[in-house]
Amino acid sequence: MRASLLQIDVNEDESANSRRERVASLVRAQQDSDLVVLPELWPTGAWAYEGFADEAEPLEGPTYEVMAKAARDAGVWLHAGSFVERDPEGPLYNTSLVFSPDGSLVAAYRKIHRFGFDGGEAVLLGAGQELVTVPMPGLRLGLATCYDLRFPELFRGLVDAGADAFVLPAGWPARRRGHWTLLARARAVENQAYVLACGTAGTHAGVEQAGHSIVVDPWGEVLAEAGTGEEVLVVDLDPALPGDTREKFPVLKDRLLGFPAPRR
Asked: Where is the CN hydrolase domain (predicted)?
């Protein structure tokens, strides 16, 4: 299985519509891949909080339409990164979409862990409530987004739901790049699963992006890692490796759940 991670430069001088068309062209160029992955909030910029309300779209809005067509034209499974979704009956969400090779929407994931503590996403966006997996030929993808990477229990839940590969779009800041690569490898090792983590390049809303999109195998080995600029990262995956790893080194069988409350 071949995967392409598109590390997009989110330039504030480029309109969201222009970027959608440019990214769609990049997706169409990946016809030799089975899976294409885009970063978090690439239409607007993950840190451009002031524009979230103005740039928010309905689920089947401009990003949906352009990405569905791009997936169909390229004949690929497309994780279209995420965008700011406007729910007509609720708050805004940081929402990821996954399309099949015929352009059909097969999954939508609303980011559960919102970054910002007392500001940013944590204030402006609603929290997702559901774990989402996507069965594709050879692998079951577990969906997560950026800040989710810091919460291992989410990934355990995805493993329990059958995931053997995690796809994680992000707008990770350069100042914490060390955490990005460390946590990507940790999630791979502890869950014996692939991690495909796709970030953005450039600087938006004054925040320099880490770049360094990364693909890690179930043993924690880095298969491919991008630099800091816009880049297409292409890697071949062995769909049998997660199962083989779990069989040869069955640590997941030794998980203990339901610990009693500690004595006080």
From this structure: 1-239
253 is catalytic: no
Candidate list 57, 121, 146, 225, residue with the active-site label: 146
Q: Which of 111, 121, 198, 225 is catalytic?
A: 111
Q: Distances from the Cα of 186 to the Cαs of 158, 166, 169, 205, in angstroms?
A: 15, 12, 17, 29
Q: Locate tokens 């997560």: which residue?
A: 144
Instruction: Give the model confidence (pLDDT) of 195-209 as tens digits.
Output: 999 999 999 899 999
Structural contact between residues 212 and 200, judged by C-beta atoms closer than 8 angstroms = no
Q: Would you call 248 a catalytic residue per the annotation?
A: no
190 is catalytic: no
pTM (2 decimals)? 0.96
- What are the beta bridge partners of residue 201? 9
Short-list 111, 193, 196, CA closest to 151: 111
Domains identified in the chain and CATH numbers: 2-250 (3.60.110.10)
CA end-to-end span of the chain, whole Å?
51
* Number of Cα atoms under 13 Å in the Cβ half of residue 133: 18
pLDDT at 90 over 90: no
**254, two tokens:** 């030794």
Q: How far apart are CA 93 and CA 105, in angstroms?
A: 18
Contacts within 8 Å (CB) and 24+ apart, 108-113: 108/59, 108/132, 109/143, 109/144, 109/145, 110/85, 111/82, 111/145, 111/146, 111/147, 111/148, 112/148, 112/151, 112/154, 113/147, 113/148, 113/150, 113/151, 113/154
How is the beta sheet containing 133-136 ordered, strand by strand? 133-136, 139-143, 165-169, 194-198, 214-216, 222-225
